[in-house]
Amino acid sequence: MALYSEKVMDHFTNPRNVGKIEDADGIGEVGNAQCGDIMKIYIKVKDDIITDVKFNTFGCASAIASSSMATEMIKGQPISKALELSNKAVVEALDGLPPVKVHCSVLAEEAVKAAVKDYYDKNGIFYEPELLAPKGCVDCHGEHH
Ligand code: FES
């Protein structure tokens, strides 16, 4: 059985929205202490809509595929929708990840939230902290890692 779904392989070998937005409205950078992987997501926001998004991920195949998929899922969406994006939704959209790799998708959820937080902070927009709290890893029962 193949370890990775076709979608994971597709998004790893041909990631969407790779790069950097020079005049980004929000930048989220997160890292996984265990594996040392780093993910950076840039967003452009207009009228509460994420009009553009790009990412740079220095990480494993699953982290790259997860960030690629996450950027596709939030592009053109209202911020409120982007904040609803869970790592579980990313994993499902990728047709699954091997259990030991699910944590890589958590990075994508965290990076999106960190980018929105940066946007809110820069613009003095008030937000409920829970809104930006990661929903937690689906395979570790809410325990964050
Ligand atoms: Fe580190 Fe995948 S092993 S994010």
Automatic annotation (TrEMBL):
InterPro entries: NIF_FeS_clus_asmbl_NifU-like, NIF_FeS_clus_asmbl_NifU_N
Ranges where the NIF system FeS cluster assembly NifU N-terminal domain occurs: 4-123
Transmembrane segments: none
Superkingdom in the source lineage: Bacteria
Example of a GO MF term: iron ion binding
One biological process term in Gene Ontology: iron-sulfur cluster assembly
One Pfam family it belongs to: NifU_N
UniProt xrefs under PANTHER family: IRON-SULFUR CLUSTER ASSEMBLY ENZYME NIFU HOMOLOG
The protein, known as: Fe-S cluster assembly scaffold protein NifU
Source species taxonomy: Bacteria, Bacillati, Bacillota, Clostridia, Eubacteriales
Gene name as annotated: nifU
